[in-house]
Amino acid sequence: KAGVTQTPRYLIKTRGQQVTLSCSPISGHRSVSWYQQTPGQGLQFLFEYFSETQRNKGNFPGRFSGRQFSNSRSEMNVSTLELGDSALYLCASSPIFFGGGLRYEQYFGPGTRLTVT
Amino acid sequence: AQKITQTQPGMFVQEKEAVTLDCTYDTSDQSYGLFWYKQPSSGEMIFLIYQGSYDEQNATEGRYSLNFQKARKSANLVISASQLGDSAMYFCAMREGSGGTSYGKLTFGQGTILTVHP
């Protein structure tokens, strides 16, 4: 079974530009979560999607948005990029949602490393 | 306030020895889950072990065990018989039960870099 894939793996953008990152979950997984990882702030939750609906959102400005498609693939978009948006963006998928309790694992992709210059 | 605290920025261990990575947490929920993930230099997060707040026994997964002390709100990871491939960043994370219909949010600690010496 293929793992979580994220594209692109590396990206360099200029301040003020916008960027779209893509995540394809493991086949059959319907929940997708996004995290931002920086040396200063560590790993921070961005948002979670299930059935094309955002179920939860972290404490990030409105420049950060996302969506999920009917095939569970997800994209996140960052508009008007700032230098502080340079980070590793990790996507994670999960096989169950409601009724899964707290045990279910999130399977992470390799991440997209975004550099803003 | 920090919900997950990992006080050891870096740890060193000799190959084949055991090492304990510390994690303390803070939550007002009665139901919560604690996770440990390993992140090699490649960046991918690898699930290691899980402990539920209602689990009476400490979790074990192969060479990994979790020393869960609920009253102290600590969930330390013990790696036995360390291997060179264990060198990585290790994160403690928590999922709180008050998430309602959302279970996708994990709160992570700052991580501990483990270096295994031959």
pLDDT < 50 stretches of chain B: none
- The dominant shape of chain B is globular
Q: How large a portion of the residues of chain A is in β-strands, by DSSP E?
A: over 45%
Main β-sheet of chain B: number of strands, strand sense, barrel status? 6 strands, mixed
The backbone outline of chain A, from C-alpha atoms, is globular
Number of DSSP strand runs of chain B? 12
Distance between the first and last residues' Cα of chain A: 37 Å
Coarse structural class of chain A: mainly beta
CA radius of gyration of chain B is 14 Å
Treating each run of at least 4 consecutive H or I residues as one helix, how many helices of chain A?
Answer: 0
Straight-line distance between termini of chain B: 38 Å
- Helix content estimate of chain B: under 10%
Average pLDDT of chain B: 92
- Largest sheet: number of strands, sense, barrel closure of chain A: 7 strands, mixed
Counting helices, strands and paired strands, the structural category of chain B is mainly beta
Biggest interface, chains and residue tallies: A-B, 32 and 30 residues
- In total, the number of strands of chain A is 11
Mean pLDDT of chain A: 91
